[in-house]
Structure formats: C-alpha cells, structure tokens
Amino acid sequence: MKQLTFILFFVALSLATMAQGTNAVTKPATEAISLKETSFDFGKIPQSHPVTHEFVITNVSADTLKLQNVQASCGCTTPVWKKDPVAPGGSTVINVGYNAASMGTFEKNITILYNAGLTKTITIKGEVFKAPATAAPQNSSIQLLKQTNQ
Asked: Which of 16, 25, 47, 86 lies at a 20 to 30 A Cα distance from 80?
C-alpha cells in the first residue's frame, strides 16, 4: 500500500511540474510591453504642416526592456525614441512625426523591434488637404464701410 501511495504521489508531482513548464513556454513573449494606444488618427491636416504624436510604452515584464529599432513603413514618417533601457514597470515614449507633403488619405505602420527580435506594430493615419494660398481672402466691403463712416 505504501508503494502504491508513493507511486501515485510521484506521478502527481511529475504532472504538476510538467504543467508549470508548459505554461511558461506557451506564455506569449509579446506581453513584455504595453501600449497606451496602438493607433492614432490625426484627422484632417493641412498640406505641408507636419504633425507628431507620442506613443507611450510601458515595460510590463520582470526584465529590462531594450528598444533596438523603431522603423516606419516610408520616409514620410519619422519615429524618434530613446535608446536607454527601460526598467520593469518603467515607461518610455516614441514620438512619431508625419511630414504631410502629399494630399490624400494615409495610413502608415511603425514597427517596434525590442528585446532581441520581438516586434509590435503601431499605426498613424489621417487625411491631408490642400491648404489655401492665403490665410483669408481680402474683404473689399471693409474699405467701403470705412469710407461711408467718415
């Protein structure tokens, strides 16, 4: 009877150890960072008026976060970030700029490469419209009112 109890205890212990190991392996590695937002819509912006937005990243892992690269899908989008490691629980900012040179709608992806090969994608979008050549047209009625009031 003691042998049977010992064998059952050993089997249960082995299964519990394997189950813990399986959970550690299947846990997604991308949970190392948390983004306050994964996309931002600039809405309508005038042509040739660059815009920027800050994406806040928080390190939610127990290890140090290292941003190796932040790469935009085209040259009209410029990400700027600090290369300093981020301690567990700490935050950093990626500032993404868009030059608004071309008219029309846009959607640009920015890929964050971190911790030796992990990636996360953020997106900016909006619509660029042609800005008027002058701030406002000249109102000729103002001159007429000035003349009649004198």
From this structure: 47
Angle at 132 between CA 128 and CA 134, to 5 degrees: 145
Residue of 125, 44, 110 lying closest to 80 (CA atoms)? 110
Residue environment code for 43-74, b if the CB has 16+ CB neighbours within 10 A, otherwise e: eebeeeeebebebebbbebeeebebeebebee
Summarised one tens digit per residue, pLDDT across range 38-87 is 999 999 999 999 999 999 999 999 999 999 999 999 999 999 999 999 99
Q: Which residues pair with 14 in a beta bridge?
A: none
As a 3-state breakdown, the chain gives helix, strand, coil percent values, each rounded to 5, of 25, 45, 30
What is the three-class DSSP state of 117? coil
Rounded distance, CA 67 to CA 65, Å?
Answer: 7
